[in-house]
Amino acid sequence: MSAAFIDKPRLSVGQIVNMNVGFLGIQFSFGLQQASMSPIYQMLGAEGKDLPYLWLAGPITGLLVQPVIGAMSDRTTHRMGRRTPYFLIGALLCSLGLLAMPFSPTLWFAAGLLWILDAANNVTMEPYRAYVSDRLRPEQHASGFLTQASFTGLAQTLAYLTPSILVGLGMNKDALGANGIPVVTTLAFIVGALLSFTTVYWSIRRVPELPLPADEVARLRALPRGFGPALAEIWQALREMPPTMRRLWWMALFQWYGMVCYWIYIVPTLAATIFGTDDAKSAGFRDAVLLNGQVGGFYNVIAFAAAFAMVPFTKRLGAKWVHAFALACAAAGMWMLPGIHDKAWLFLPMVGIGLAWGSIMGNPYVLLAGSIPPERAGVYMGIFNMFIVIPMLIQSLTLPLLYDSVLGGRPENVIRLAGVLLALAALCVLRVPTEKSS
Protein backbone atom coordinates (compact mmCIF):
# COMPACT_ATOMS: atom_id res chain seq x y z
CA MET A 1 0.00 0.00 0.00
CA SER A 2 1.36 3.44 -0.93
CA ALA A 3 1.26 6.40 1.44
CA ALA A 4 -1.08 7.97 -1.09
CA PHE A 5 -3.83 5.47 -0.13
CA ILE A 6 -3.74 5.78 3.65
CA ASP A 7 -7.20 6.70 4.92
CA LYS A 8 -6.39 9.88 6.83
CA PRO A 9 -8.79 10.95 9.58
CA ARG A 10 -10.27 14.42 9.24
CA LEU A 11 -8.64 16.69 11.83
CA SER A 12 -10.47 19.21 13.97
CA VAL A 13 -9.62 22.92 13.95
CA GLY A 14 -7.86 22.46 17.29
CA GLN A 15 -5.71 19.63 15.94
CA ILE A 16 -4.75 21.68 12.87
CA VAL A 17 -3.73 24.53 15.17
CA ASN A 18 -1.74 22.23 17.47
CA MET A 19 0.14 20.58 14.62
CA ASN A 20 1.29 24.02 13.47
CA VAL A 21 2.41 25.39 16.85
CA GLY A 22 5.93 24.17 16.03
CA PHE A 23 6.02 26.67 13.21
CA LEU A 24 5.92 29.40 15.86
CA GLY A 25 9.41 28.45 17.03
CA ILE A 26 10.80 27.87 13.54
CA GLN A 27 9.53 31.19 12.24
CA PHE A 28 10.53 33.12 15.37
CA SER A 29 14.08 32.15 14.47
CA PHE A 30 13.65 33.33 10.87
CA GLY A 31 12.03 36.55 12.12
CA LEU A 32 15.03 37.28 14.33
CA GLN A 33 17.30 36.82 11.33
CA GLN A 34 15.20 39.10 9.12
CA ALA A 35 15.03 41.82 11.76
CA SER A 36 18.50 41.58 13.26
CA MET A 37 21.17 40.05 11.01
CA SER A 38 21.85 43.10 8.81
CA PRO A 39 22.13 45.39 11.87
CA ILE A 40 24.34 42.83 13.66
CA TYR A 41 26.60 42.59 10.62
CA GLN A 42 26.83 46.38 10.30
CA MET A 43 27.49 46.80 14.02
CA LEU A 44 30.36 44.31 13.61
CA GLY A 45 31.80 46.36 10.73
CA ALA A 46 30.11 45.23 7.47
CA GLU A 47 29.51 47.73 4.64
CA GLY A 48 26.11 48.11 2.96
CA LYS A 49 27.14 46.74 -0.42
CA ASP A 50 28.50 43.55 1.19
CA LEU A 51 25.33 42.62 3.10
CA PRO A 52 23.91 40.27 0.41
CA TYR A 53 27.14 38.24 0.44
CA LEU A 54 26.85 37.83 4.21
CA TRP A 55 23.30 36.50 3.78
CA LEU A 56 24.43 33.67 1.48
CA ALA A 57 24.14 31.14 4.31
CA GLY A 58 20.36 30.93 4.02
CA PRO A 59 20.02 30.21 0.30
CA ILE A 60 23.01 27.88 0.05
CA THR A 61 22.12 25.75 3.08
CA GLY A 62 18.49 25.65 1.94
CA LEU A 63 19.58 24.57 -1.54
CA LEU A 64 21.74 21.75 -0.17
CA VAL A 65 19.85 20.66 2.92
CA GLN A 66 16.11 20.72 2.22
CA PRO A 67 15.93 18.53 -0.91
CA VAL A 68 18.24 15.94 0.65
CA ILE A 69 16.38 15.91 3.97
CA GLY A 70 13.08 15.72 2.06
CA ALA A 71 14.18 12.70 0.04
CA MET A 72 15.64 11.00 3.13
CA SER A 73 12.51 11.61 5.21
CA ASP A 74 10.33 10.06 2.49
CA ARG A 75 12.26 6.81 3.05
CA THR A 76 12.61 6.97 6.84
CA THR A 77 10.89 4.27 8.92
CA HIS A 78 11.91 5.35 12.43
CA ARG A 79 9.53 4.34 15.24
CA MET A 80 8.86 8.06 15.92
CA GLY A 81 7.79 8.64 12.31
CA ARG A 82 9.17 9.69 8.95
CA ARG A 83 9.50 13.41 9.76
CA THR A 84 9.74 13.63 13.57
CA PRO A 85 13.46 12.73 14.00
CA TYR A 86 14.38 15.60 11.67
CA PHE A 87 12.12 18.04 13.56
CA LEU A 88 13.79 17.31 16.87
CA ILE A 89 17.41 17.32 15.71
CA GLY A 90 16.97 20.51 13.68
CA ALA A 91 15.11 22.34 16.46
CA LEU A 92 17.77 21.48 19.04
CA LEU A 93 20.62 22.68 16.82
CA CYS A 94 18.64 25.83 15.99
CA SER A 95 18.25 26.61 19.72
CA LEU A 96 22.00 26.32 20.25
CA GLY A 97 22.73 28.60 17.27
CA LEU A 98 20.30 31.25 18.49
CA LEU A 99 21.92 31.23 21.94
CA ALA A 100 25.37 31.83 20.49
CA MET A 101 24.60 34.39 17.74
CA PRO A 102 24.32 37.66 19.75
CA PHE A 103 27.62 36.90 21.53
CA SER A 104 29.55 36.79 18.23
CA PRO A 105 32.88 38.59 18.81
CA THR A 106 33.64 39.31 15.15
CA LEU A 107 31.95 39.63 11.77
CA TRP A 108 33.39 36.37 10.44
CA PHE A 109 32.19 34.50 13.55
CA ALA A 110 28.61 35.78 13.12
CA ALA A 111 28.64 34.95 9.41
CA GLY A 112 29.89 31.42 10.08
CA LEU A 113 27.38 30.86 12.85
CA LEU A 114 24.55 31.90 10.53
CA TRP A 115 25.51 28.99 8.26
CA ILE A 116 25.01 26.55 11.15
CA LEU A 117 21.78 28.22 12.27
CA ASP A 118 20.30 28.22 8.76
CA ALA A 119 21.25 24.59 8.19
CA ALA A 120 19.47 23.65 11.41
CA ASN A 121 16.39 25.68 10.47
CA ASN A 122 16.25 23.95 7.10
CA VAL A 123 16.54 20.48 8.66
CA THR A 124 13.40 21.31 10.64
CA MET A 125 11.49 23.30 8.02
CA GLU A 126 11.29 20.89 5.09
CA PRO A 127 9.90 17.87 6.96
CA TYR A 128 7.41 20.19 8.66
CA ARG A 129 5.91 21.17 5.30
CA ALA A 130 5.71 17.51 4.31
CA TYR A 131 4.22 16.59 7.71
CA VAL A 132 1.26 18.92 7.09
CA SER A 133 0.74 17.46 3.63
CA ASP A 134 1.06 13.90 5.04
CA ARG A 135 -1.33 14.41 7.92
CA LEU A 136 -4.21 16.26 6.24
CA ARG A 137 -6.82 15.13 3.77
CA PRO A 138 -6.66 17.03 0.43
CA GLU A 139 -9.73 19.12 1.22
CA GLN A 140 -7.99 20.35 4.40
CA HIS A 141 -4.76 21.45 2.73
CA ALA A 142 -5.87 25.09 2.46
CA SER A 143 -6.76 25.19 6.16
CA GLY A 144 -3.50 23.48 7.12
CA PHE A 145 -1.09 25.58 5.12
CA LEU A 146 -2.85 28.89 5.79
CA THR A 147 -2.89 28.08 9.51
CA GLN A 148 0.82 27.45 9.16
CA ALA A 149 1.10 30.84 7.47
CA SER A 150 -0.77 32.48 10.35
CA PHE A 151 1.75 31.06 12.82
CA THR A 152 4.48 32.52 10.64
CA GLY A 153 2.85 35.93 11.04
CA LEU A 154 2.42 35.52 14.80
CA ALA A 155 5.97 34.25 15.33
CA GLN A 156 7.58 36.98 13.30
CA THR A 157 5.42 39.62 14.99
CA LEU A 158 6.84 38.46 18.32
CA ALA A 159 10.38 38.27 16.93
CA TYR A 160 10.25 41.79 15.51
CA LEU A 161 8.60 43.33 18.58
CA THR A 162 10.55 41.61 21.38
CA PRO A 163 13.32 44.27 21.53
CA SER A 164 10.74 47.09 21.62
CA ILE A 165 8.74 45.25 24.30
CA LEU A 166 11.90 44.92 26.40
CA VAL A 167 12.59 48.64 26.01
CA GLY A 168 8.97 49.37 26.97
CA LEU A 169 9.49 47.30 30.12
CA GLY A 170 12.34 49.60 31.12
CA MET A 171 15.50 48.25 29.49
CA ASN A 172 17.97 50.76 28.07
CA LYS A 173 17.90 50.63 24.24
CA ASP A 174 21.47 51.96 24.15
CA ALA A 175 22.93 49.35 26.53
CA LEU A 176 25.51 47.39 24.53
CA GLY A 177 27.35 44.12 24.99
CA ALA A 178 31.13 43.87 24.71
CA ASN A 179 30.80 43.31 20.95
CA GLY A 180 28.61 46.41 20.43
CA ILE A 181 25.35 44.47 19.97
CA PRO A 182 22.41 45.84 22.03
CA VAL A 183 21.48 43.84 25.11
CA VAL A 184 17.81 43.83 24.03
CA THR A 185 18.84 42.03 20.83
CA THR A 186 20.73 39.43 22.86
CA LEU A 187 17.71 38.76 25.05
CA ALA A 188 15.46 38.42 21.98
CA PHE A 189 17.73 35.65 20.65
CA ILE A 190 17.59 33.87 24.01
CA VAL A 191 13.77 33.92 23.85
CA GLY A 192 14.01 32.46 20.33
CA ALA A 193 16.25 29.66 21.55
CA LEU A 194 13.66 28.65 24.18
CA LEU A 195 10.78 28.72 21.68
CA SER A 196 12.57 26.82 18.92
CA PHE A 197 12.62 23.42 20.61
CA THR A 198 9.62 23.65 22.95
CA THR A 199 7.05 24.52 20.28
CA VAL A 200 8.19 21.77 17.89
CA TYR A 201 8.04 19.25 20.75
CA TRP A 202 4.51 20.45 21.60
CA SER A 203 3.27 19.79 18.05
CA ILE A 204 4.66 16.31 17.68
CA ARG A 205 3.29 15.30 21.09
CA ARG A 206 -0.18 16.72 20.42
CA VAL A 207 -0.55 15.55 16.80
CA PRO A 208 1.88 12.69 16.16
CA GLU A 209 2.51 11.32 12.73
CA LEU A 210 0.24 8.57 11.42
CA PRO A 211 1.84 5.11 11.55
CA LEU A 212 2.53 3.67 8.13
CA PRO A 213 0.93 0.34 7.16
CA ALA A 214 3.18 -2.68 7.51
CA ASP A 215 3.44 -3.25 3.75
CA GLU A 216 4.45 0.39 3.23
CA VAL A 217 7.13 0.09 5.90
CA ALA A 218 8.43 -3.05 4.20
CA ARG A 219 8.51 -1.26 0.84
CA LEU A 220 10.43 1.67 2.28
CA ARG A 221 12.93 -0.54 4.09
CA ALA A 222 13.66 -2.33 0.83
CA LEU A 223 14.68 0.96 -0.82
CA PRO A 224 18.35 1.98 -0.79
CA ARG A 225 19.29 4.46 1.93
CA GLY A 226 21.87 7.18 2.32
CA PHE A 227 23.07 10.30 0.56
CA GLY A 228 23.54 8.78 -2.92
CA PRO A 229 20.02 7.34 -3.28
CA ALA A 230 18.62 10.61 -1.92
CA LEU A 231 20.38 12.53 -4.69
CA ALA A 232 19.11 10.03 -7.27
CA GLU A 233 15.55 10.49 -5.98
CA ILE A 234 15.89 14.27 -6.23
CA TRP A 235 17.09 14.02 -9.83
CA GLN A 236 14.23 11.70 -10.79
CA ALA A 237 11.69 13.98 -9.10
CA LEU A 238 13.09 16.99 -10.95
CA ARG A 239 12.64 15.19 -14.27
CA GLU A 240 9.05 14.24 -13.39
CA MET A 241 8.06 17.60 -11.91
CA PRO A 242 4.33 18.37 -12.39
CA PRO A 243 3.44 21.27 -14.75
CA THR A 244 1.90 23.36 -11.95
CA MET A 245 5.13 23.18 -10.00
CA ARG A 246 7.21 24.18 -13.04
CA ARG A 247 5.11 27.30 -13.56
CA LEU A 248 5.49 28.26 -9.90
CA TRP A 249 9.22 28.77 -10.48
CA TRP A 250 8.78 32.11 -12.26
CA MET A 251 6.57 33.47 -9.51
CA ALA A 252 9.08 32.31 -6.91
CA LEU A 253 12.03 33.92 -8.71
CA PHE A 254 10.59 37.45 -8.57
CA GLN A 255 8.79 36.99 -5.24
CA TRP A 256 11.79 35.85 -3.22
CA TYR A 257 14.36 38.11 -4.91
CA GLY A 258 12.12 41.02 -3.93
CA MET A 259 11.47 39.90 -0.35
CA VAL A 260 15.17 39.42 0.36
CA CYS A 261 15.87 42.92 -0.99
CA TYR A 262 13.34 44.21 1.52
CA TRP A 263 14.67 42.28 4.53
CA ILE A 264 18.30 43.19 3.94
CA TYR A 265 17.84 46.90 3.23
CA ILE A 266 14.79 47.99 5.26
CA VAL A 267 16.80 49.05 8.33
CA PRO A 268 19.33 51.18 6.38
CA THR A 269 16.39 52.63 4.43
CA LEU A 270 14.54 53.64 7.60
CA ALA A 271 17.76 55.04 9.08
CA ALA A 272 18.19 57.26 6.00
CA THR A 273 14.58 58.30 5.35
CA ILE A 274 13.27 58.67 8.91
CA PHE A 275 16.37 59.40 11.02
CA GLY A 276 18.69 60.95 8.41
CA THR A 277 21.73 58.76 9.10
CA ASP A 278 23.86 56.20 7.29
CA ASP A 279 26.10 55.55 10.35
CA ALA A 280 25.51 52.05 11.71
CA LYS A 281 27.04 53.02 15.08
CA SER A 282 24.77 56.04 15.63
CA ALA A 283 21.80 56.34 17.98
CA GLY A 284 19.62 57.06 14.93
CA PHE A 285 20.55 53.72 13.40
CA ARG A 286 19.65 51.90 16.63
CA ASP A 287 16.34 53.79 16.58
CA ALA A 288 15.80 52.53 13.02
CA VAL A 289 16.36 48.94 14.23
CA LEU A 290 13.65 49.38 16.86
CA LEU A 291 11.33 51.09 14.37
CA ASN A 292 11.80 48.20 11.94
CA GLY A 293 10.79 45.88 14.76
CA GLN A 294 7.59 47.86 15.25
CA VAL A 295 6.56 48.12 11.60
CA GLY A 296 7.73 44.54 10.97
CA GLY A 297 5.66 43.38 13.90
CA PHE A 298 2.68 45.24 12.45
CA TYR A 299 2.95 43.66 9.01
CA ASN A 300 3.26 40.25 10.63
CA VAL A 301 0.09 40.91 12.65
CA ILE A 302 -1.59 41.64 9.32
CA ALA A 303 -0.11 38.41 7.93
CA PHE A 304 -1.39 36.45 10.93
CA ALA A 305 -4.94 37.76 10.53
CA ALA A 306 -4.89 37.66 6.73
CA ALA A 307 -3.81 34.02 6.58
CA PHE A 308 -6.94 32.97 8.47
CA ALA A 309 -9.14 35.38 6.52
CA MET A 310 -7.85 34.04 3.19
CA VAL A 311 -9.07 30.47 3.79
CA PRO A 312 -12.63 30.95 2.43
CA PHE A 313 -11.38 33.15 -0.44
CA THR A 314 -8.75 30.59 -1.42
CA LYS A 315 -11.32 27.78 -1.37
CA ARG A 316 -13.79 29.80 -3.44
CA LEU A 317 -11.60 31.77 -5.87
CA GLY A 318 -8.45 29.63 -6.01
CA ALA A 319 -5.04 30.16 -4.44
CA LYS A 320 -3.48 31.83 -7.48
CA TRP A 321 -6.00 34.70 -7.66
CA VAL A 322 -5.76 35.44 -3.95
CA HIS A 323 -1.96 35.29 -4.08
CA ALA A 324 -1.73 37.59 -7.11
CA PHE A 325 -3.86 40.21 -5.35
CA ALA A 326 -1.73 40.03 -2.20
CA LEU A 327 1.53 40.38 -4.15
CA ALA A 328 0.17 43.41 -6.02
CA CYS A 329 -0.68 45.08 -2.69
CA ALA A 330 2.88 44.50 -1.45
CA ALA A 331 4.36 45.86 -4.69
CA ALA A 332 2.45 49.11 -4.21
CA GLY A 333 3.49 49.31 -0.56
CA MET A 334 7.19 48.81 -1.24
CA TRP A 335 7.23 51.39 -4.02
CA MET A 336 5.57 53.88 -1.64
CA LEU A 337 7.74 53.18 1.40
CA PRO A 338 11.00 55.08 0.61
CA GLY A 339 9.06 58.31 0.01
CA ILE A 340 7.66 58.32 3.56
CA HIS A 341 9.46 60.54 6.10
CA ASP A 342 6.89 60.48 8.92
CA LYS A 343 7.04 57.17 10.76
CA ALA A 344 3.30 57.22 11.49
CA TRP A 345 2.63 56.76 7.76
CA LEU A 346 4.95 53.73 7.53
CA PHE A 347 2.16 51.46 8.72
CA LEU A 348 0.13 52.05 5.54
CA PRO A 349 2.51 50.22 3.14
CA MET A 350 2.95 47.55 5.80
CA VAL A 351 -0.68 46.51 5.28
CA GLY A 352 0.14 45.43 1.71
CA ILE A 353 3.40 43.77 2.75
CA GLY A 354 1.55 41.90 5.51
CA LEU A 355 -1.12 40.64 3.10
CA ALA A 356 1.58 39.32 0.80
CA TRP A 357 3.57 37.68 3.59
CA GLY A 358 0.49 35.89 4.91
CA SER A 359 -0.22 34.63 1.39
CA ILE A 360 3.41 33.74 0.55
CA MET A 361 3.62 31.32 3.45
CA GLY A 362 0.36 29.56 2.57
CA ASN A 363 -1.13 29.88 -0.91
CA PRO A 364 1.84 28.64 -2.98
CA TYR A 365 1.82 25.48 -0.85
CA VAL A 366 -1.89 25.01 -1.50
CA LEU A 367 -1.10 25.14 -5.22
CA LEU A 368 1.81 22.76 -4.77
CA ALA A 369 0.13 20.18 -2.52
CA GLY A 370 -2.67 19.68 -5.04
CA SER A 371 -0.22 18.85 -7.82
CA ILE A 372 2.30 16.41 -6.28
CA PRO A 373 1.99 12.68 -5.46
CA PRO A 374 1.52 12.29 -1.67
CA GLU A 375 4.11 9.52 -1.36
CA ARG A 376 6.77 11.95 -2.64
CA ALA A 377 5.67 14.96 -0.58
CA GLY A 378 9.03 15.18 1.21
CA VAL A 379 11.22 15.36 -1.86
CA TYR A 380 8.89 17.75 -3.71
CA MET A 381 8.58 20.06 -0.70
CA GLY A 382 12.37 20.04 -0.57
CA ILE A 383 12.64 20.83 -4.27
CA PHE A 384 10.07 23.59 -3.87
CA ASN A 385 12.34 25.11 -1.26
CA MET A 386 14.93 25.35 -4.03
CA PHE A 387 12.45 27.72 -5.68
CA ILE A 388 12.92 29.91 -2.61
CA VAL A 389 16.65 29.66 -2.07
CA ILE A 390 17.85 29.86 -5.68
CA PRO A 391 16.28 33.34 -6.10
CA MET A 392 17.87 34.28 -2.77
CA LEU A 393 21.22 33.04 -4.04
CA ILE A 394 20.80 34.95 -7.29
CA GLN A 395 19.95 38.07 -5.29
CA SER A 396 23.02 37.69 -3.06
CA LEU A 397 25.32 37.36 -6.06
CA THR A 398 23.79 40.00 -8.35
CA LEU A 399 22.54 42.79 -6.09
CA PRO A 400 26.07 43.90 -5.03
CA LEU A 401 26.90 44.34 -8.73
CA LEU A 402 23.88 46.64 -9.15
CA TYR A 403 24.04 48.46 -5.83
CA ASP A 404 26.38 51.29 -6.82
CA SER A 405 26.14 51.27 -10.63
CA VAL A 406 22.35 50.98 -11.08
CA LEU A 407 20.83 51.76 -7.69
CA GLY A 408 23.09 54.70 -6.82
CA GLY A 409 24.42 53.12 -3.64
CA ARG A 410 21.14 53.92 -1.88
CA PRO A 411 19.16 51.36 0.15
CA GLU A 412 15.91 53.20 -0.69
CA ASN A 413 16.30 52.25 -4.34
CA VAL A 414 16.67 48.58 -3.40
CA ILE A 415 13.25 48.75 -1.73
CA ARG A 416 11.76 50.28 -4.90
CA LEU A 417 13.31 47.45 -6.93
CA ALA A 418 11.62 44.98 -4.58
CA GLY A 419 8.27 46.58 -5.42
CA VAL A 420 8.81 46.08 -9.15
CA LEU A 421 9.80 42.45 -8.63
CA LEU A 422 6.72 41.64 -6.56
CA ALA A 423 4.50 43.12 -9.27
CA LEU A 424 6.15 40.76 -11.77
CA ALA A 425 5.56 37.84 -9.37
CA ALA A 426 1.85 38.72 -9.27
CA LEU A 427 1.66 38.50 -13.07
CA CYS A 428 3.57 35.20 -13.13
CA VAL A 429 1.32 33.43 -10.62
CA LEU A 430 -1.68 34.11 -12.87
CA ARG A 431 -0.07 31.84 -15.48
CA VAL A 432 0.00 28.84 -13.13
CA PRO A 433 -2.52 26.13 -14.16
CA THR A 434 -5.62 25.99 -11.95
CA GLU A 435 -4.97 23.63 -9.03
CA LYS A 436 -7.19 20.84 -7.84
CA SER A 437 -9.72 21.75 -5.20
CA SER A 438 -8.10 21.76 -1.79
From TrEMBL:
TM region positions: 12-32, 52-72, 84-101, 181-204, 248-275, 295-314, 321-338, 344-367, 379-402, 414-432
Membrane topology of this protein: Multi-pass membrane protein
Keyword presence, RNA-binding: no
Domain of life, source organism: Bacteria
Subcellular location as annotated: Membrane
Keyword terms, alphabetized: Membrane, Transmembrane, Transmembrane helix, Transport
InterPro entries on file: MFS (IPR011701), MFS_trans_sf (IPR036259)
Keyword Transmembrane: yes
Protein name: MFS transporter
